[in-house]
Amino acid sequence: MTGESVLELLDRLRGAGVDAWIDGGWGVDALAGEQTRPHDDLDLVVRLADAAAIRDTLAPLGFAEVENELPTRFVLADAVERRIDLHTVTFDDGGGGVQTHQDGSAFRYPPEGFSEGAILGRPVPCISAEIQLACHLGYEPDEKDLHDVHLLHARFGVPLPAPYDTTAPKPIAPDLRRQREEVVRRHMESENVHDFDATMDTFGHPRYELIATDRIHDGEAAVRDYFRETRTAFPDQRNELISLRHADDAVIAEFWLLGTHEGPLLGIEPTGKPFRCRMTAFFLFDGADLVCERVYFDSATILRQLTS
Fold first, then answer.
1. What is the C-alpha separation between 9 and 81, in angstroms, rounded?
2. In terms of Cα–Cα distance, which of 265, 249, 258, 248 is closest to 188?
3. pLDDT band at 90 (very low <50, low <70, confident <90, very high)
4. Which of 6, 110, 244, 257 would suit a FRET pair with 133, their CA atoms being 20 to 30 Å apart?
């Protein structure tokens, strides 16, 4: 469907007293004032009461009805495969155009949704950027939809909702979410019983980052040394899980860490005193693989209990 064809069709309809506003791909390009991609068809918003007049007006140009979903829409096509998708509305007392869907629901084009653009330098009536965006929601977009919505965003600043915002993270699949949570629970439970072989098995790559002490234990040997050091200092070290939350690439655990100081730790001789500290750990994942446990806590909370 060329720009010249669009203007010809609008002229025919206008000559018959039919108002029509350009929607869809050509509507986006009309708002932009230039053709930015090829168009297979032409979408028009028209009055439902004009449906018969539209058929009669365009029949001499070779157009015949090929789909009828009134009162929602109908489609005309000609022998050279030019298609016109006509979205039929009834105007209410407020000046809005109400399109009744097949299931009985309705979509209202507000008065401010009827705007103006240009095709081949000539002013044409069209649907506004905001309503164009609303009409592109509720289904899986194809490449043309992505092009059109990103053009609306670039030219008119309309927001990019999902699924058009390709920078936005996709929701975690339920199976992956469950798998990650199971890994974290096994990990924390194995630490409680000091089954560190099982703990190692929960990692895709063993790594602990202890933010409060600025210490990183990376790789199996370093992580096993960390287990040996901390469990020598606190033979009964254990966690009590408070909650788990999910992020795009992590499971976040809030927990109590408890233990009794029975061995040396970072130059501090054993005091025999217990501690209890509320902590947060970010279990970071690459897909389903646990690649790091990053732990945040207040070291002063622990030291105060051990040395007071």
1. 14
2. 258
3. very high
4. 6
Whether residue 144 sits in one domain with residue 233: no
Mean pLDDT of the chain: 95
Whole-number Cα distances in Å, 118 to 17, 32, 232: 20, 8, 77
Which domain does 235 fall in, by range?
A: 174-307
Distance CA 39, CA 25 (A): 7
CB 39 within 8 A of CB 56: no
Q: Is residue 168 domain-resident?
A: no
pLDDT above 70 for 169: no
Q: For 125-149, write each residue's pLDDT tens digit.
A: 999 999 999 999 988 899 999 999 9
Q: What CATH number does residue 182 fall under?
A: 3.10.450.50
Whether pLDDT at 276 is above 70: yes
Query: What DSSP assignment string belongs to 225-266?
Result: HHHHHHHHH-TT-EEEEEEEEE-SSEEEEEEEEEEE--S-BT
Q: Rounded to whole angstroms, how far apart are CA atoms 80 and 60? A: 14
Q: How far apart are CA 247 and CA 249, in angstroms?
A: 6
pLDDT of 165 reads 85
Judged by DSSP in three states, 184 sits in helix
181 and 292 in a single domain? The answer is yes
Query: How far apart are alpha carbons 50 and 19 in whole angstroms?
Result: 9
Answer whether residue 263 shows pLDDT above 70. Answer: yes
Phi, psi angles (nearest 5°) of residue 182 = -60, -40
Element spanning 133, H or E: helix 129-135
Give the H or E element holding residue 282. strand 274-286
Kindly state whether residues 45 and 132 are assigned to the same domain: yes
For the segment 297-308, the average pLDDT, to the nearest whole number, is 93
- For residue 167, being part of any structural domain is answered with no
In 63-102, alpha helices (H): none
DSSP conformational letter for 200: H
